[in-house]
């Protein structure tokens, strides 16, 4: 069951002036607490009762249910309903904010992971170039003396580093 929160808000707002008059529950007949119950307000100063709603579930052979219903109705008065709806809306907005933050962090993490992978590939390519230079130096051939070979190695290093490749 999905609650229509907008309709519930509209209804609670339409009777909001009754909130202070629907905040207490008491037996309709003080002699018979199994009978009907009343929802309304009690004046703390003079003890007067101001009934608004009478709940009588006893007529449906449900002893004790009138009290439960009356206590629920008085606890879920319009002011409480509006407060709960405000809390739900605030929680929804907070959840949306954190979801957006999570998605942004995941996108940035993906960018960083891609940059790391690219850097690792370039590092490995430079390591290969350096090893070729070491092999050429120490491979019994002596220092690199051919311009073409040196130029090929230097241009490959420039390419990996994102620098301009020189011709000739």
Descriptive report:
- A hairpin with a 6-residue loop joins β2 and β3.
- The longest helix is centred in the middle third of the chain and has 61 residues, at 78-138.
- The two termini are 76 Å apart.
- The chain has helices spanning 5-14, 65-75, 78-138, 147-161; strands at 24-27, 37-42, 49-55.
- α1 packs antiparallel against α3 (78-138) and α3 (78-138) packs antiparallel against α4 (147-161).
- With 168 residues, it is mainly alpha-helical.
- It has a three-stranded antiparallel sheet, covered by helices on one side.
Task: Give a quick precis of the structure.
The protein has 168 residues and is mainly α. It has helices spanning 5-14, 65-75, 78-138, 147-161, and strands spanning 24-27, 37-42, 49-55.
How do the helices and strands line up, and which of them pair or pack?
Elements: H1 5-14, E1 24-27, E2 37-42, E3 49-55, H2 65-75, H3 78-138, H4 147-161
Helix pairs in contact: 1-3, 3-4
Features:
10% strand, mainly alpha, 168 residues
User: How many beta-strand runs?
Assistant: 3
Percent of residues in β-strands? 5-15%
Return Rg in Å: 40 Å
Q: Give the structural class.
A: mainly alpha
Q: Give the overall pLDDT as a whole number.
A: 83
Basic shape = rod-shaped
Poorly predicted residue ranges: none
């Amino acid at each position: 069951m999905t609650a229509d929160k907008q309709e519930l808000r509209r209804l609670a707002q339409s009777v909001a002036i009754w909130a202070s008059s629907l905040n207490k529950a008491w037996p309709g007949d003080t002699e018979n607490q199994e009978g009907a119950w009343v929802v309304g307000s009690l004046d703390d100063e003079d003890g007067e009762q101001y009934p608004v709603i009478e709940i009588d579930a006893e007529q449906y052979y449900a002893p004790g249910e009138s009290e439960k219903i009356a206590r629920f109705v008085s606890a879920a008065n319009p002011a409480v309903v509006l407060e709960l709806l405000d809390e739900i809306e605030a929680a929804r907005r907070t959840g949306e904010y954190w979801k957006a933050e999570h998605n942004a962090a995941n996108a940035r993490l993906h960018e960083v992971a891609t940059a790391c992978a690219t850097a690792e590939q370039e590092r490995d390519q430079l390591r290969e170039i350096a090893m070729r230079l070491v092999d050429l130096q120490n491979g019994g051939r002596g220092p690199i003396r051919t311009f073409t070979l040196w130029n090929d190695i230097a241009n490959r290093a420039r390419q990996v580093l994102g620098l301009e490749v020189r011709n000739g």
